[in-house]
Design goal:
The complex is a heterodimer of chains A (about 325) and B (about 290). With about 325 residues, chain A is an all-alpha fold. In chain A, about 75% of the residues lie in helices and about 0% in strands. The chains are: A mainly alpha (about 325), B mainly alpha (about 290).
Chain lengths: ~325, ~290
C-alpha cells in the first residue's frame, strides 16, 4: 500500500534530486547546471535514438508499407503504380484457397486450446507436488519448446513418412491396421499437425502454469485439506480459480500464435502440398501467393488481412476475457515489481 | 543420452519419502508414473533423431523404428568433418550474438530513459515500442525484405541481424522497464547527491543492477535468433551465409535419400540449443514466465 502512494512522489523526488545535483559542489557537468532540461533532452535523444530508429525502420515502416502496397497490383519491380483499391482484398476474401487456410487457422486455434489446455493443467497440477527430480522433469518437458521448428519439422516428417518410424512401430505392436499416410492424407494431416504442435508447445504451457501455481499461497489448499476437502476438490475449487489469470494469458498467447502459424507447416508440408493436405494457414498462403508467386501487392494485402484478423481477435479477447486482469494490472502498475 | 537414464535413476528413492501429507499419499506414485510417461513421449522423437543418426540407411529402410544393430558413428563423423555444418554453426553464432548484443545495448538504453526520465511524450514512446508486440514479423515480411534489399543487405547476416534486433525490442523494453523502475529511488538520490550525472548513474548503477534482467532478455533474444526461420528464408539465398535452420532444411532436401545422414545432421544441429538451454534453464523459464506475467 505504501508503495503505491510512493509513485506520485517519485516525480517530485526526481525533480528535487535534479535540482540538488545542480547545487552540489562535486563538479557536475556544466550543461546540467545551466539547464538540466536541455541536458536531459540530449541524453534522452542519445539513449532512445538508436533503438527508436531501428524499431521505426524495421518494424513500423515495413508494417505501414505493407498496408500501402496492399492497394497495388505490383510485381516488386520499380515503384508501385497500378493502384487497384480494394481489389486485392476482394480477391483474397473470395479465394477458396484463402478461405480454407482461414478455416485451418480456426481449427488450429480451437484444437490448440482444447488439446494443450487440459493436458498442461493436469501435468502442472501433478508436477506441482513435491517430487524428486522435479527440476529435471521440468527441463525435459520443456525440451521440445527449445528445439527449433526446422529440427522439429525435419524429424517429425521423417518419422511420419508412410514408411517411417511411426508406421513401423505400429506394425511391430500388431497395430498394422492403423498405419496411415500421416502427412498427405487430407483427412488426417491436420490432426498430425495438431499432435506435433501439442508436442512442441505443451511444455511452454506447463511451465507457465507451474509458475502460476507456485504463486498460490500454500495456506489456502492446506486450510481446505484440514476442512476435509479431497485433492481434486481442492484443485477444482481453489487452485484452478486462482490459476485463472495465468490460463487466460496462456490462451491469449496460444490463440495469437495459432493464427500466425507458419514455420512448422511450411517446413513439413511446403507451400504447395500444404493446401492439398489441408494444413495451409494464412501465413503460408501469404508467402506462397505473395513473394513466391511474385505478387508483392497481393502478398501485402494478405498480410494486412492476417494482421486485422489477429487484431480483432486480440481486442475482443482483451475486452471480454482479459479485462478483469488488465484492470488489476493497471491499478497496480506503480506497485508491481 | 544421459537424459534418458536420469529420470529412471531419480525414480527408486522417490517412494520412501512419499507419504508426507496424508491427503496426498495416494497421489504421489501416480504423479511419478505420469511424469515418466510424459517425459517418454516428449523425448521419444528427439531420441529417434539422435539414435537414427547411428543407424545405416539399409537398417532404417528395413526397420524404420528399430534400434541400431551396430552403432555406426560414420554419419556423425561425416557431418562433423565436413565444412558445411561448422559454417552454419558459425553463421548462426554470429547472427545470434550480434542480435543479442544489439538488443541488450539498444534495449537497455531506451528502457533506462522510459523508466527513469520524466518528459513529455514518454507514454507515447513506450506505447510505440509496446505496439510492436502486435506486429509479428510475418505481417511485415515482404516490405521488410524490400527494406533490407534497398539497404544492400541481401545475402548478408546484417540483413537478418538488424530486423531481429528491431523485432526483439518490444519484449526487451517491456521486461526491462519495470525492472529498472524497481531500483530504489534512494540509490539514485544518493548517487546524484554524490555528484553522479544521470549518464554516470546509468553506467555505474543501472547496468550492474539490471544484469539479471539483461541476461534474461539476452537469452530470449539469442534463442529466438538461433531458431529463426522466416526472416533468413527471405533474406539469405546463398549457402555461404545460411544459418543453421536453413542449412538443416537444405541438407534434408539435398540428401533426402540419405535419411541416416539427415538424422545425424539434424541431431547435431540441436545440440547447441540444448546445451545452451541446459546452462540457462532457470533464466529462460523465469524470463518466459516473467515476460508473460509482467
Amino acid at each position: 500500500m505504501s508503495v503505491r502512494e510512493n509513485t506520485p512522489t517519485r516525480l517530485e523526488v526526481d525533480l528535487a534530486s535534479g535540482g540538488a545535483t545542480g547545487t552540489t559542489p562535486v563538479a557536475p557537468p556544466v550543461r546540467r547546471r545551466r539547464s538540466s532540461s536541455v541536458g536531459a533532452r540530449v541524453e534522452i535523444a542519445v539513449l532512445v535514438g538508436p533503438a527508436l530508429i531501428v524499431f521505426l525502420g524495421f518494424v513500423i515502416f515495413p508494417v505501414v508499407m505493407a498496408a500501402y502496397y496492399g492497394f497495388f497490383s505490383w510485381q516488386g519491380y520499380g515503384p508501385p503504380t497500378d493502384f487497384v483499391g480494394f481489389r486485392n482484398y476482394v480477391t483474397i476474401l473470395q479465394d477458396p484457397t484463402f478461405q480454407e487456410a482461414l478455416t485451418h487457422n480456426g481449427v488450429i486455434v480451437v484444437l490448440s486450446l482444447v488439446l494443450q489446455g487440459p493436458v498442461a493443467i493436469l501435468l502442472a497440477l501433478l508436477l506441482n507436488r513435491k517430487l524428486r527430480g522435479q527440476s529435471l522433469i521440468r527441463v525435459l518437458i520443456f525440451v521440445p519448446y527449445v528445439i527449433s521448428e526446422v529440427v522439429v519439422g525435419t524429424g517429425w516428417s521423417l518419422m511420419l513418412q508412410s514408411n517411417g518410424a511411426v508406421n513401423g512401430m505400429l506394425e511391430k505392436l500388431g497395430l498394422g491396421a492403423f498405419t496411415q499416410d500421416w502427412l498427405s492424407n487430407p483427412d488426417i494431416a491436420i490432426w498430425t499437425l495438431m499432435v506435433i504442435i501439442t508436442w512442441k508447445y505443451v511444455g511452454f504451457a506447463v511451465i507457465l502454469f507451474l509458475a502460476g501455481l507456485q504463486g498460490i499461497p500454500e495456506e489456502l489448499p492446506e486450510a481446505a485439506a484440514i476442512d476435509g476437502a479431497s485433492f481434486w476438490q481442492i484443485q477444482r475449487h481453489i487452485t484452478l480459480p486462482l490459476l485463472a489469470p495465468t490460463l487466460r494469458i496462456w490462451a491469449f498467447l496460444s490463440i495469437i500464435g495459432a493464427l500466425q502459424l507458419f514455420d512448422l507447416v511450411y517446413i513439413i508440408w511446403g507451400q504447395y502440398i500444404a493446401s492439398t493436405a489441408g494444413t495451409s494457414t494464412m501465413a503460408t498462403y501469404l508467402v506462397a501467393n505473395g513473394r513466391n508467386a511474385g505478387n508483392y501487392g497481393y502478398g501485402n494485402a494478405v498480410a494486412v488481412v492476417l494482421f486485422l484478423i489477429s487484431l480483432v481477435v486480440a481486442l475482443i479477447y482483451q475486452r471480454f476475457v482479459l479485462s478483469r486482469d488488465t484492470e488489476g494490472a493497471i491499478t497496480e502498475k506503480g506497485t508491481s515489481k | 543420452m544421459t537424459a534418458l537414464t536420469t529420470p529412471a535413476v531419480a525414480l527408486p528413492p522417490a517412494n520412501p519419502p512419499a507419504p508426507i501429507k496424508t491427503s496426498r499419499r495416494w497421489g504421489t506414485p501416480v504423479a511419478y508414473v505420469v511424469a515418466v510417461l510424459v517425459i517418454g513421449l516428449m523425448l521419444a522423437p528427439v531420441l529417434f533423431i539422435i539414435i537414427g543418426g547411428f543407424r545405416t540407411n539399409a537398417q532404417i529402410t528395413t526397420d524404420p523404428s528399430g534400434w541400431p544393430s551396430v552403432w555406426n558413428i560414420g554419419n556423425y563423423l561425416d557431418v562433423l568433418t565436413g565444412g558445411t555444418f561448422w559454417r552454419l554453426v558459425g553463421n548462426s553464432l554470429i547472427a545470434g550474438f550480434a542480435t543479442t548484443l544489439g538488443v541488450v545495448v539498444l534495449g537497455l538504453m531506451a528502457s533506462y530513459v522510459l523508466a527513469r526520465y520524466k518528459f513529455r511524450g514518454r507514454g507515447i514512446l513506450y506505447a510505440t515500442f509496446a505496439a510492436g508486440l502486435m506486429f509479428p514479423m510475418t505481417v511485415a515480411i515482404t516490405p521488410l525484405y524490400l527494406v533490407v534489399k534497398n539497404l544492400g543487405l541481401m545475402n548478408s547476416l546484417g540483413g537478418v541481424i538488424l530486423p531481429q534486433i528491431a523485432f526483439a525490442l518490444p519484449t526487451t523494453i517491456i521486461i526491462l522497464v519495470p525492472f529498472l523502475r524497481a531500483i530504489p529511488d534512494e540509490i539514485q538520490e544518493a548517487a546524484f547527491i554524490d555528484g553522479c550525472s544521470r549518464l554516470g548513474f546509468f553506467w555505474r548503477m543501472i547496468v550492474p543492477l539490471a544484469m539479471p534482467g539483461v541476461i534474461t532478455v539476452g537469452i530470449l533474444a539469442f534463442i529466438a535468433s538461433w531458431n529463426s526461420y522466416l526472416l533468413p528464408l527471405f533474406i539469405l539465398n546463398n549457402d555461404a551465409v545460411f544459418t543453421l535452420p536453413l542449412g538443416v532444411q537444405s541438407f534434408a532436401s539435398q540428401y533426402s535419400v540419405d535419411t541416416a545422414k539427415v538424422l545425424a545432421f539434424t541431431s547435431l544441429s540441436m545440440i547447441p540449443a540444448l546445451v545452451f538451454f541446459a546452462l540457462f534453464e532457470r533464466r529462460i523459464v523465469g524470463g518466459l514466465t516473467g515476460a508473460v506475467k509482467g
